[in-house]
Amino acid sequence: MSSLQLIDENKNFNEHLLPYIQKYYDGKDDKGLNYHIVSVFGSQSTGKSTLLNRLFGTQFDVMDETKRQQTTKGIWISHANYIASTLVESGRLDNENHLFVLDVEGVDGREKADDKDFERKSALFALSTSEVLIVNIWEHQVGLYQGANMELLKTVFEVNLSLFSSSKQKCLLLFVIRDFTDMTPIENLSNSLMADLNKIWSSLSKPESCQDLTITDFFDLKFTSIAHKHFQPDKFEHDIQLLGDRFASTELFKNEYHRNIPIDAWTIYMDQIWQQIEENKDLDLPTQQILVARFRCDEIMLLAYQNFEEQYEKVDFEKLDDPQEFADSIKQLRTEALVPYDTSASRYTQTVYLERREQLAKKIDSKLTETNSRRLASVIKKLVKEFSDRVQAAKKNHEGSLKEILAAQTALVTASFREDAGKCMFDHSQELEQLETEIQAATEQIRRKEKSLLVSRLTKRFQSQFKEKLTELCGDPTDDLWDKVMVEFSKIEDGLESKFLVDGVYDYHLGLDAKENAELHIDLQKAHWSKFRDIVHDYVTEDTVSRILRNKFEDLFRYDEQGVPKMWTNTLEIDQQYNKAREAVLKLLPTFSRIVLAKTNEEVVPPVNISSGEFEDLDEEDEEVPFAELLSTRQQTGVLGRVRKEMDAIYIEAKRSVMSSMTS
Ligand code: GDP
Ligand code: MG
Prior knowledge:
The chain is 58% helix and 9% strand. With 664 residues, it is of the alpha/beta class. It has a seven-stranded mixed beta sheet with strand order 1-3-6-2-7-8-9, with helices on both faces. Helix 7 (263-278) crosses helix 8 and helix 11 packs antiparallel against helix 12 (429-475). Bound molecules: guanosine-5'-diphosphate and magnesium ion. Residues 48-49, 60, 71, 103, 105 line the site of magnesium ion.
């Protein structure tokens, strides 16, 4: 099992740590927390690497005894190939729980400045990352308070205080006493070591908050021994296997030692910690963990979203006609996007995990809400069309007044929308509002159409009745022709109203309110008055007037008061009759020229504005003919000329007939 130089002699961090680790454990099938980190510490050439290689099947460099050559300085990492054990015949247990070992090389506790720096940094690094720290010590060094080992432990304790005084992250210090002779019982050696440790501890300058704390508040301490490698080779191996048994059991690794950083993030965590150590910055481990959590949760979030988008693209939402199917598919997409995120990210700092989860959910929801809205827009379109069709059908079936039908169909459509949209988890209040606005508009349109239908129906009746009356009155014109016309106009209007007004309201089917009713009344007035104008202007032309006046003259000239044809006896009589009739007829011409009431001598003016509306402010040239003006001066002259000629012809004919009867 080859090892990896994690930190080299130039204090550079190895970039290939992650692939190295993942070769043995990628943490994909579990939460990535099934691993352990063990470090070893101690003076140079005390057999640390030898112990690790035997205990864990690693291949750390061991000093060549023949050359006494130093091994390469730095921190090395290796996956344990096996764990030495007495429990199996092969003497090797599988490394099921992924034990990784850090071997710190080149620390000898001498007072060289550079070594001192490396020693301190190594201690910091080992403490911030490991669960178990093996402290390797010769038996003959125990009790010698002075010396390299004690310096090293002092460093470890100092560093520990600066790192964990607030968080009290604990780890295990496992003292391994080498070349154990069994002359002094292990208990005594332990006690002696404990005494030294306490001495070191009390000599440290501690922060205010840690004054009353002891070593055991920060460290669990255990002691073990291994026999001499050369003098007792069998016992040496056996002792190592016994130690292996403890590593394979749950005895040494307590949950509280573990940093709970999933293995894929652990490499980032280590890297960041080393950078901080190297830059001599204050090492804030909780912050480091949060940074790692952010980094990883961001990655996981991105991946989850990408995955979501892929799944999203696969769904053909257009085909999901059934609202339940659509809602289910939306829900499923959302869940399937969040579950893998939860699985991977929930292992990290909770606040970060939850914060990123919210971001992810928001992003997913935004896309899904958009999809839902798109669907609801087409549902609205369909419902609005259905609404108009259903209203027409209900009208045909006489399912109540239009007002009732509209109300019923509106309720129906709204309910149907609510039921449909309510199946999806997303809010639809905005879409509901949209639907209501559109239904309102459709309703308005239907009512408008209905109202204009009513107006045109009434106007048609008005038109035929008025035309008939006008023709009748003009056939036997009098000076007060327009007074009579106006009386008829009112009569027709009243007649129509009495037919269509129910309790003062036009067509109760429409459910008009007072304002609408008043508006409709004005619309009707306008329609009637413009029909009035059109009919009168069409009818009263030069031709019609000439014919009417000629007929009137004939009546007056040829018949007496009793309507009996006149028998002329002399020409004087003819002259008298001619003058009388002519005078009466010519007096009628102004009546046909302008609509003026005889009673008041005032022009008739419509009570409502009937000009073509939008074009009210046109140029003077385009001005419409005034309402009351029927024949222009030129037309009047034309009529006069024609009527005169015809009257004269009738007169002459009468005279001739009298003369011829007298001469015969
Ligand atoms: P390290 O520098 O602490 O990693 O020590 P090494 O493992 O490289 O060993 C240094 C020297 O000590 C080598 O020559 C080993 O053969 C020797 N050695 C290893 N283990 C023991 C032991 O248990 N007792 C003794 N006396 N020597 C050992
Ligand atoms: Mg070594």
